[in-house]
């Protein structure tokens, strides 16, 4: 891995940290906060691709694991990971990986609708698939309740997907960082 790759990984991990400065917004009745950090997951996967994107978010997760206050509201540490929102944090690098793999595969045909579909899959559905069952277990609530209380995140997540997709398509045009596959 070249030093440019390492710099890009560090940059996108830093973007995740900056996105964590947004104040913690707790939606009524929800067991997790609204977070702008899923936008960072989308940007990392769709702009850096699978390997560098997932590594950037993994680096961010390491910062959380060792206890740095990089989650919204200045939270971090194993107590967060073991709590109701830990599954989402663990899912962040997996979401970036899925986005990166699909973005690379469809790179030649990449456009806004494709970006939105990929980013919704990796930046919302993958996070829900891991985060919501984890939330049900950690918060001792039924899976049904975890799902219904999480529906409130959908509008905000769709906005983040569209914003991230517009950025990804613009970066692809101006300064593509993902090499086209043969
Ligand atoms: O900071 C944390 O402890 C993790 C928060 C996870 C919040 C999830 S991610 C998917 C969904 N969209 C949001 O804005 N919030 C939830």
- Bound compounds: biotin
Quaternary structure of the protein: single chain
Largest sheet: 2 strands, antiparallel
Number of helices: 8
Main location: membrane
GO molecular function, one term: biotin transmembrane transporter activity
Membrane topology: Multi-pass membrane protein
Keywords: Cell membrane, Membrane, Transmembrane, Transmembrane helix, Transport
Walk me through what this model shows.
This protein is mostly helical. It has one domain (3-174): Orthogonal Bundle (Arp2/3 complex 21 kDa subunit ARPC3), CATH 1.10.1760. The protein has 8 helices and 2 strands, in the order αββααααααα. It has a two-stranded antiparallel ribbon with strand order 1-2. The longest helix is centred in the last third of the chain and has 28 residues, at 112-139. It is globular, with a radius of gyration of 16 Å. The two termini are 21 Å apart. The structure holds biotin (BTN). Biotin (BTN) binds next to strand 2, helix 5, helix 6 and helix 8. Biotin (BTN) is lined by residues 32-35, 38, 71-72, 80, 85, 88-89, 127, 131, 153, 156-157. GO terms for molecular function: biotin transmembrane transporter activity. The chain crosses the membrane at residues 7-25, 31-48, 55-74, 80-102, 114-135, 147-171. It is found in: Cell membrane.
Secondary-structure topology with pairs:
Blueprint: H1 3-19, E1 25-26, E2 33-34, H2 37-48, H3 50-65, H4 78-81, H5 86-105, H6 112-139, H7 143-150, H8 154-174
Antiparallel strand pairs: 1-2
Helix pairs in contact: 1-2, 1-3, 2-3, 2-5, 2-6, 2-8, 3-5, 5-6, 6-7, 6-8
The structure holds biotin.
Biotin is lined by residues 32-35, 38, 71-72, 80, 85, 88-89, 127, 131, 153, 156-157.
